[in-house]
């Protein structure tokens, strides 16, 4: 019987939805940026190792907990922690995940809204006109970010699309959107990568990415690879746990987690091939700001043959990646209201989505439209504005602390026989694999995520 909460129609639906949750703006710009910052090849290998040894085990842990508990993050920890050390205090981990989903979606949808504006500009030809004039793109983007009405409109449109998908439920909404958007996303990404192969900088990009220089590695590089591996997989916020609660018992958790992680990593690597081919072709300066996607890149696109099509395809790609991520964030929050407050899906989606939209208006106005919101500073230099404040809070505290506690619960509180009961279903004969996962989730993953938190507190590193 299908769960009354909803259930994926099959393994493919779960993998595409979970991969969609993981794939986002971080894959398309943040990973290329930090790869460039850490001098390529060797960093990429460390990142892949971090995905395998840290990200994949924590993803398996979230799916195990989700399917075992069969509820939202709060309900899952309440159910599984009953009668164990710590008792219901473990519910705090679930609440932290729901809060993270609420906060992240409130500002992520603002950035996602930018992609809609740029798709319209690219299709209508105005983006090409801006790209043809010196400094016009920078001036336009600065004025656009400070235009409160435009920011709220983009935020509203993206939240509307997100709520529409979640409103229809797990199978008819989230899964259906993922099974359409994810293949399209990969087609666009592969098309752009093929195009990148025709540019002058393609050979240099491939050498930069896949010819490792281990002498360039530093402790900071390793910590950044750990951080990117953790954040890229959408861990620590309960999204994968929530999606795992809709997973069928006959589907393999290890194989599903491996496929999701591989798809997410592939997107990041393809994005690097595309970005570095363009960067090395035109000698671009690489900055940490995602704003470069909306200022520098359009100017470059229109210097290439078919630049208008290239620009439109790129912003559609970014919009698809953002939408599959925002859907998972809203589902975390909505599932809490459905399970714990006994709301209908319609009530949960509209109320929680509406609340996030209202809260997100403050973020939309904190990019220059409103003085007090734009100058708010809680965490120090470089974090001015409510938008940046919440981004820093989520990325540097809520997610890593949540991920650490999930690893500790799965490795040290949940009994081995309970984890094994979930792993062996759909994956018989995997005792050796389970033993390896058990070691990684008990010892390696907590130490690695603890190192991320240590780097924030004592080394002043930031993950945004």
Describe the structure.
The structure is a single chain. The chain has helices at residues 11-22, 25-37, 41-69, 73-81, 91-124, 126-131, 136-145, 148-167, 170-196, 202-210, 219-232, 239-244, 253-282, 296-301, 307-340, 345-364, 371-375, 386-413, 416-424, 431-458. It is mainly alpha-helical. The chain has one domain (11-458): Orthogonal Bundle (Hydantoin permease). Helix 9 packs antiparallel against helix 15 (307-340) and helix 18 (386-413) runs antiparallel to helix 20 (431-458). The chain is globular, with a radius of gyration of 21 Å. 52% of the residues are buried. The mean pLDDT is 94.
Q: Please, what is the average pLDDT?
A: 94
> What would the principal axes of the Cα set say about the shape?
globular
* Residue share in β-strands: under 5%
Tally of DSSP β-strands:
0
Which sequence of SSEs, written as H and E, runs from N to C?
HHHHHHHHHHHHHHHHHHHH
For this structure, the CATH topology is Hydantoin permease
Fraction of residues in H or I helices:
over 70%
* Structural class by helix and strand composition: mainly alpha
- Integer tally of domains: 1
CATH class: Mainly Alpha
Number of helical regions:
20
List keywords for this structure.
464 residues, mainly alpha, Hydantoin permease, 75% helix
Concise structural overview:
Helix content is 75%, strand content 0%. The protein has 464 residues and is mostly helical. It is globular and about 65 Å long.
Helices and strands in order, then pairings?
Layout: H1 11-22, H2 25-37, H3 41-69, H4 73-81, H5 91-124, H6 126-131, H7 136-145, H8 148-167, H9 170-196, H10 202-210, H11 219-232, H12 239-244, H13 253-282, H14 296-301, H15 307-340, H16 345-364, H17 371-375, H18 386-413, H19 416-424, H20 431-458
């Amino acid at each position: 019987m299908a769960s009354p909460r909803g259930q994926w129609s099959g393994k493919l639906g779960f993998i595409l939805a979970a991969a969609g949750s993981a794939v986002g703006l971080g894959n398309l710009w943040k990973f290329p940026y930090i790869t460039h910052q850490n001098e390529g090849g060797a960093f990429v290998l460390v990142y892949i190792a971090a995905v395998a040894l840290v990200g994949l085990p924590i993803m398996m842990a979230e799916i195990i907990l989700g399917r075992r508990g069969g509820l939202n993050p709060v309900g899952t920890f309440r159910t599984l922690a009953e009668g164990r050390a710590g008792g219901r205090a473990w519910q705090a981990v679930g609440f932290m995940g729901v809060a993270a989903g609420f906060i992240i979606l409130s500002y992520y949808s603002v950035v996602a809204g930018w992609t809609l504006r740029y798709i319209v500009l690219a299709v209508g030809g105005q983006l090409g006109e801006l790209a043809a004039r010196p400094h016009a793109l920078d001036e336009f983007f600065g004025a656009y970010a400070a235009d409160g009405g435009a920011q709220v409109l983009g935020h509203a449109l993206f939240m509307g699309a997100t709520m529409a998908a979640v409103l229809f439920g797990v199978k008819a909404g989230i899964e259906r959107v993922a099974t359409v958007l994810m293949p399209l996303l990969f087609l666009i990404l592969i098309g752009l990568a093929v195009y990148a192969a025709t540019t002058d900088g393609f050979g240099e990009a491939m050498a930069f990415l896949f010819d490792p220089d281990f002498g360039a590695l530093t402790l900071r590089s390793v910590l950044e690879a750990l951080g990117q591996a953790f954040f890229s997989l959408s861990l620590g916020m309960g999204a994968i746990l929530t999606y795992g609660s809709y997973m069928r018992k006959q589907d393999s958790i290890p194989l599903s987690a491996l496929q999701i992680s591989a798809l997410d990593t592939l997107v990041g690597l393809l994005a690097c091939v595309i970005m570095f081919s363009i960067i090395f072709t035109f000698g671009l300066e690489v900055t940490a700001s995602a704003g470069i996607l909306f200022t520098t890149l359009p100017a470059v696109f229109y210097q290439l043959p078919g630049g208008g099509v290239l620009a439109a395809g790129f912003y559609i790609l970014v919009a698809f990646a953002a939408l599959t991520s925002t859907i998972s964030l809203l589902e975390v929050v909505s599932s809490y209201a459905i399970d714990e407050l006994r709301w209908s899906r319609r009530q949960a989606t509209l109320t929680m989505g509406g609340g996030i939209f209202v809260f997100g208006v403050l973020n939309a106005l904190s990019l220059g439209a409103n003085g007090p919101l734009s100058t708010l500073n809680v965490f120090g230099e470089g974090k001015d504005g409510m938008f940046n404040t919440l981004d820093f809070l989520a990325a540097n505290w809520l997610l890593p602390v949540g991920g650490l506690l999930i690893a500790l619960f799965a490795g040290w509180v949940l009994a081995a026989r309970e984890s094994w009961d979930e792993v062996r279903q759909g994956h018989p004969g995997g005792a050796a694999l389970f033993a390896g996962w058990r070691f990684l989730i008990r010892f390696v993953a907590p130490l690695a995520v603890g190192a991320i938190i240590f780097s924030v507190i004592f080394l002043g590193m930031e993950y945004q």
